[in-house]
Write a structure and sequence with these properties.
single chain, 245 residues, mainly alpha, 12 helices, 69% helix
Length: 245
């Protein structure tokens, strides 16, 4: 298969370069994709810069390079942090903050020292400013575990609910557990079992979610089970689960 035609044409728009790069990426032509995406990124195309970061972060067609991905995501965060949270580039900027938070949380050997406090601040920015469901889930879990700052079941429940409402399956399961057990929020067995049922039906093969659901289902009354299942079915008929990372 021949490579898609691409040259450093000074008249080529950033959008055209991005499309060329993305087509090359879809065809498995990583070198051509990186060339075109880099050209688009240099012209200020946010999505192209983000895609480069994801390629290096996941090792998709290249050697995985978290340090390089970190640099790319840092550039996005530094240059576009104050962009329109509802704009066309918002999801790329938000995801860059989430990626950086993960790097600060876990560290990069020889490059980035783990700093959970900083990770929480990055998650908070993406969760609050961009309303990013993955950031909201991760922030909720940090509050629940007391990582990077104070432990707060109440704040954990708040952020997990926001992510659950957007279809984040892991948040739905954890928020359902908190509701069912009355952790950080007033206990509501029906709503808790509802969220656990939604999570179990949205993602299959997750042993932890299945176990949480089975435990709650066994502890609930027959009436609560029926009500929760009806509510879950109604929610699922109107919604699509959000992707988890």
């Amino acid at each position: 298969m021949t490579s898609p035609a691409f040259a450093f044409d000074p008249d080529m728009s950033a959008r055209d370069a991005f499309r060329t790069g993305y087509l090359a990426y879809k065809q498995g032509q990583t070198a051509a994709a990186i060339e075109a995406l880099s050209y688009a990124a240099d012209k200020g195309h946010t999505a192209a810069l983000w895609k480069l970061g994801r390629i290096y972060a996941t090792g998709d067609g290249v050697k995985e390079d978290d340090a390089h991905a970190f640099q790319i995501f840092s550039k996005i965060a530094n240059e576009y942090a104050d962009g329109n949270p509802r704009g066309s580039d918002a999801r790329f900027v938000s995801d860059a903050f989430v990626a950086l938070a993960g790097y600060f949380r876990d560290g990069i050997v020889g490059k980035v020292v783990a700093d959970e406090g900083r990770a929480r601040r990055f998650y908070t920015y993406a969760a609050a400013y961009f309303a990013d469901p993955e950031a909201q889930y991760q922030l909720g879990m940090m509050y629940l575990d007391g990582r990077g700052g104070e432990r707060s079941d109440r704040q954990a429940a708040r952020w997990l609910k926001l992510a659950a409402d957007k279809g984040h399956v892991l948040a739905q399961a954890e928020f359902g557990r908190l509701l069912f057990e009355g952790v950080g929020i007033r206990r509501n067995a029906v709503k808790g079992l509802m969220w656990l049922s939604i999570a179990r039906n949205s993602i299959h093969g997750d042993d932890e979610i299945q176990t949480l659901h089975e435990q709650a289902f066994a502890a609930a009354s027959e009436n609560d089970r029926r009500t929760a299942m009806a509510l879950a079915e109604d929610w699922l008929s109107k919604s699509e689960p959000a992707p988890t990372k």
